[in-house]
Design goal:
Blueprint: H1 13-20, E1 24-28, H2 32-44, E2 51-56, E3 60-62, H3 67-72, E4 81-83, H4 84-87, E5 91-102, E6 107-112, E7 117-121, E8 124-127, E9 131-133, H5 141-144, E10 145-146, H6 151-170, H7 174-180, E11 182-186, H8 190-207, E12 219-223, H9 235-247, E13 251-253, E14 258-260, E15 265-268, E16 273-275, E17 278-281, E18 285-287, H10 290-293, E19 304-305, E20 311-313, E21 319-325, E22 330-331, H11 345-363, E23 378-381, E24 387-390, E25 396-398, H12 400-413, H13 417-432, H14 448-463
Parallel strand pairs: 1-2, 1-8, 2-5, 8-21, 10-17, 11-12, 11-17, 12-13, 19-22
Antiparallel strand pairs: 3-4, 5-6, 6-7, 9-18, 14-15, 15-16, 20-21, 23-24, 24-25
Helix pairs in contact: 2-11, 6-7, 6-8
Length: 464
């Protein structure tokens, strides 16, 4: 573990002015926190000697609330991505991953996309690597399952669902057909319910195009370990969501765990077992390991510990100078509830903006301001034309109105006018024309056609 400096002499007014004109800020992560923090820092650090560097594994920000609609084909997948180089005009973007941070000397090791590594020196560090899927030790899970956290996974699932329908239409084996038409989603939170609802809509529409499958239906199974769906929202709304999904023929198995997925056979804690070729894992996330492996103080869940000002602090309450954190990987006190801030996009965006203000304030010798935000409600889409919503106060909305609120809110929050227009056009086209049911599974195997051509050419030469 690296040694962390936990105190520093106060800056004089002259030193503060000099510091703000020679500040190097390193932002680790290009999600909501990293992107919005960099945007706000660009507005406040205007001197030519100031430098903002953002390191991210991709050159884009993905707007995760729209991943379910990207998976179902309602929205073109590219339209839920925002090019970081387009929105961050004064930030140096490095596509790669921060491998390790030595905060004692203010230096980070970055693994670049092309394979080499470089060292970056910084004055101020913003930790925002986000989170990754939480995977449990279930036999066969790593081989059979796919998550639902990235645009790559969303595209893969769309192709997978359509490819299963194609295969089912061609097979004459009844058991094999039933397995191909069985889709399992584990996790009844936001991600699981919204992904299930959109993908079930896709399969229902696609099945109408297969005369070979007339009379068949896709079996969708939702497995949830607790006794209720959507624990983040009002119980009445969660019950409505469950009724709507059940009415569509979706099997919901509460208080049930997936014990094994080996060989494509789903074995449940209730003793039930059945074959399925598609398994979606959405049981939550865990913090990225960057903070822990770099020696920063973390809590029992691996989140870097912060104070209400978004400064990294040690377990005894001492502030770690020049280190800030927010988002899924940070344990930030929630001053409105007394607990910790939940890992939501609402909190992440507002934490990022307050973090940027505090970074500049401290550099200029002014006191930081605490982060305080009260959740403004929850919105959940249940597929086309249905949803549930809890608004500020006692307002509860369900059905078409909630679905419309979900779309309207997230469209307004989508970064850049360009992307908002494109998404609105996608929705308009989806209303006027039938759903596109083309599977592009070859995207996962881009060299397959060329490899086969090369093999055939080699065989031809040998024969000749």
């Amino acid at each position: 573990m690296v040694a962390l400096r936990t105190h520093r002499s106060p800056l004089t007014a002259d030193e503060a002015r000099e510091t703000i004109h020679n500040m190097r800020v390193l932002v680790c992560g290009g999600g909501f926190v990293g992107t919005y923090a960099a945007l706000r820092l660009e507005r406040r650090l205007r001197h030519p000697d100031d430098e903002i560097v953002l390191v991210n594994a991709e050159n884009y920000l993905q707007y995760q609330p729209f991943l379910p609609e990207a998976a179902s084909g309602t929205i073109e997948p590219r339209h839920v991505l925002v090019a970081l180089r387009r929105v961050l005009c004064r930030t140096r973007l490095i596509v790669g991953e921060v491998e390790e941070i030595d905060h004692a000397v203010h230096r980070a090791r970055v693994h670049l996309l092309e394979g080499s590594s470089i060292d970056l020196d910084y004055d101020v560090l913003v930790l925002a690597p986000g989170s990754i899927s939480r995977v449990l030790p279930v036999p066969g899970l790593a081989e059979q399952a796919v998550g639902f956290k990235t645009i790559d996974e969303a595209i893969h699932l769309r192709n997978d669902v359509l490819a299963r329908l194609e295969a089912a239409a061609e097979t004459s084996d009844a058991d094999r057909r039933r397995a191909l038409l069985t889709f399992v989603v584990v996790g009844g939170g936001y991600a699981g319910v919204e992904a299930l609802a959109e993908l079930e809509d896709l399969s229902r529409a696609a099945l109408k195009r297969y005369p070979e499958l007339r009379g068949e239906h896709a079996r969708w199974v939702l497995i949830e370990a607790t006794d209720r769906l959507l624990p983040e929202i009002d119980p009445g709304l969660a019950e409505y969501a469950q009724r709507r999904l059940t009415r569509r023929g979706i099997e919901i198995k509460m208080s049930t765990r997936l014990d094994s997925a080996e060989g494509g056979i789903m074995r449940l804690s209730t003793g039930e077992k059945f074959a399925a070729t598609t398994l979606v894992w959405t049981t939550g996330v865990r913090p990225h390991s960057l903070a822990a492996r770099s020696g920063f103080p973390v809590d029992d869940r691996g989140r870097v510990t912060c104070d209400e000002y978004l400064r990294v602090r040690t377990t005894d309450g001492a502030v770690v100078p020049d280190a800030w954190a927010a988002g899924d990987n940070a344990a930030v006190p929630d001053l409105t509830t007394g607990g910790l801030c939940p890992p939501t996009a609402q909190h992440a965006i507002r934490q990022a903006k307050q973090l940027a203000r505090n970074v500049v304030a401290v550099a200029r010798g002014r006191p930081p301001r605490p982060f305080r935000y009260r959740n403004r409600g929850q919105l959940v889409s249940l597929g086309r034309y249905r949803g549930v919503a809890r608004l500020p106060g006692p307002v509860r909305v369900r059905g078409f109105a909630a679905w419309w609120l979900h779309r309207t809110y997230h469209l307004a929050k989508m970064p850049t006018f360009n992307r908002r227009v494109r998404i609105a056009l996608d929705w308009t086209v989806a209303m006027l024309f039938p759903r596109d049911v083309v599977a592009l599974g070859s995207l996962q195997r881009p060299r397959e056609a060329f490899r086969r051509a090369a093999e055939e050419e080699e065989e031809r030469r040998r024969a000749g």
